[in-house]
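Our preliminary data section would be incomplete without showing what the modeling component actually yields. Below, a chain of 371 amino acids is followed by its predicted structure, encoded as tokens that our downstream tools consume directly.
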Amino acid sequence: MLSVFCSPSRYTQGKNATDALGVEMSGLGLHGPALIVGGRSPIRLLSETWKHTLSEAGIAYAVFEFGGECSLSEIERIKLVAKQYKSQVIIGAGGGKVLDAARAVAADLNLPIVNCPTVASSDSPCSALSVIYSDDGVAQGSRFHRKNADLVLVDTQVIAHSPPRLLVAGMGDALATWFEAKTCVEGGVKNLRGGVSTQTALALAKLCYRTLLADGADALRSVQSKVVTPALERLVEANTLLSGIGFESSGLAAAHAIHNGLTTAKATHAYLHGEKVAFGLLTQLVLEGQPRSVLNRVLRFATEVGLPITLADIGLTDLPPEVLQKIAVRATAENDTMHNEPFEVKPDMVADAIMAADATGRAWKKDHCPS
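Predicted structure:
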């Protein structure tokens, strides 16, 4: 089997990086008309900067406000607008779902894609896939695209002014990267691009984990203070680039499959992708029978930055057996990443691991988080 490593063509990060968007696009031979697909807040915050940087580069553009879910209907809606404006490049600006939708549109229309994450809440920007949801927020599956982004541009000044919860959610997504990558590599399973992992990808996944532990708490304090610091720069790189390359070029396992299962429970819809992945990781570690020392490191970090470690933390204060069963069945769906674990995983095993992870998290809180 061939080894396959994937990454964006160019990754640009730094304070006020949006000022360089036009120059970066021109340097890569990307010209207008461009369609910017943006969330409401990015449009409000960055409109003047887009006007300046894209006008200077001679790139005509139009702006389309994202509807909220990366659903098939939303993707089709954006495609119609892109065709109307005869767009030659798609620019996604916002969080993971905005970028996923923009990426799907670009892929369907065979256009270049520029990802401009305005939060560091997931590793979506550097990947070549889109997670597709129903219009009411239930994960439906993933769509794999031909190539990664032509440009990922990350403005840490914008991220420093984003809600701290979003940065923490990104840490939850990134926290699973090393553990899922290690599971996939040790099992010799294919990564998301159909090959086996390279040493480079696994090393980046490990660096992602080490960076989280070293800089996560300081980076959170930076965002709480709305300032850009070296710790924030390193942490944003971990959430975005290291995690993005690590998961795509090494693979996903139980943590993300459990996230997908959790989306079937309506009570979790108010919680972010990375928050549910964090609890999914704790469940994966229980499912795999990992040593207590490993669980303790994850629990300590999660507690320090405020990631979920119990079912109640993701809205499931009450979990009827039928809801638990539905979660477990979805988590073990055919072709989901649960089957990258090195043993056969049945729904009842997932249900037991979820309840055991919840008990572990509650015990940790009792001992380490006195009210």
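The chain has a mean pLDDT of 95. The radius of gyration is 20 Å. Preliminary results of this kind motivate Aim 1 of the renewal.
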